[in-house]
Amino acid sequence: MIPVVYHLYDSSGKILGAIGVSGDSSCADHNIAWKLRHKLNLDYVPKGISPTQDDNIIYDITDGVSASGWGHSECSPGAAQIARELPKTHPVRTKEKQ
To answer: What is the Cα–Cα distance from 49 to 56, expressed in whole angstroms?
Structure first.
């Protein structure tokens, strides 16, 4: 399987590196990588394409078309629900002002 890769950001929003996670599904990989990056305190995401302005997975595919152009197919209802809650349960940190 191809791993899900997330950038690791310091408190200034600078990319320090990346982390890759590969498991049973890309949706679960996303959730695990997000939580791990949060645990490491390396989730100062400066901006993102999701509705919450972070880099959360987007589930917006209807009839095979993504409304945002960034949509991902839903692997399971459980994984999708976990992802929808991540901005609340494991919010990205706010970049420090320079």
So the answer is: 8
HSE-CB of 92 using CA atoms within 13 angstroms: 26
Token pair for 23: 């498991």
Which residue is associated with the tokens 């993504």? Answer: 66
Q: How far apart are CA 19 and CA 9, in angstroms?
A: 11
CA dist., res. 20 & res. 30, Å (int) = 9
**Cα four-point dihedral sign 32, 22, 57, 64:** negative
Question: Digits of tens for pLDDT over the chain (98 positions)?
Answer: 567 788 999 999 999 999 988 888 989 999 999 999 999 999 999 888 888 889 999 999 999 999 999 999 899 999 999 999 999 999 999 877 65
DSSP for 24-62, written as a single string: S-HHHHHHHHHHHHHHTT-B-----SSTTSS------EE
